[in-house]
Amino acid sequence: xxxxxxxxxxxxxxxxxxxxxxxxxxxxxxxxxxxxxxxxxxxxxxxxxxxxxxxxxxxxxxxxxxxxxxxxxxxxxxxxxxxxxxxxxxxxxxxxxxxxxxxxxxxxxxxxxxxxxxxxxxxxxxxxxxxxxxxxxxxxxxxxxxxxxxxxxxxxxxxxxxxxxxxxxxxxxxxxxxxxxxxxxxxxxxxxxxxxxxxxxxxxxxxxxxxxxxxxxxxxxxxxxxxxxxxxxxxxxxxxxxxxxxxxxxxxxxxxxxxxxxxxxxxxxxxxxxxxxxxxx
Length: 281
What we know:
elongated
């Protein structure tokens, strides 16, 4: 068989089964007083179950680099075993592609666009907000633009769909989305925007969109209890005494080193492992 075809089957079977096994990872919500710190923690929890499959994928790619173009034949039992995991991957890809062609929201204030994010503002919301609330809403969306949050949401949704059908994956995604809004609220206030002005913008947006029968996913991100918590945070004085723990760069370096090590191991031992797997199947 062609090496690329064998690689695709092994990725679907081994990485897919690893994702399925890791998808049950506990879904307890992270706790942090800072919205930005909470967003960082929930982002890490969102991707933690996918690390084993990522290392396995790197090892398989390392194997493919040194494997001859004509690889061994994959037994039918392994081929059929890979079909359910390939179906999950296809479902995730279809949902990701479908989200790209959705109509631009015309009922809210939101940030859209993956590579070139931009802000859209519904006229009826702009007319309903006073000057302070409108400035707060726009500054909040500028924070989304700065962090390219539409692209991050799209990637995170794709990763969550790879863990289907585990409910815990959707719960982790929801916790991160909620923390994301809290983090952008906090950054907006750090730019000098009063919390009550941003709270007024959120309440007005939710009220008008509920009146139109189309709840605002950009401002709610959850149920009524989450909205209440978000507004309560905005009405409290901003805590600037607790510094944000920035560990993103260190984690990326460790992750990169781990993936490189997995690829090297794949080049050294991948052929032996794959030959044993195919011979025993």
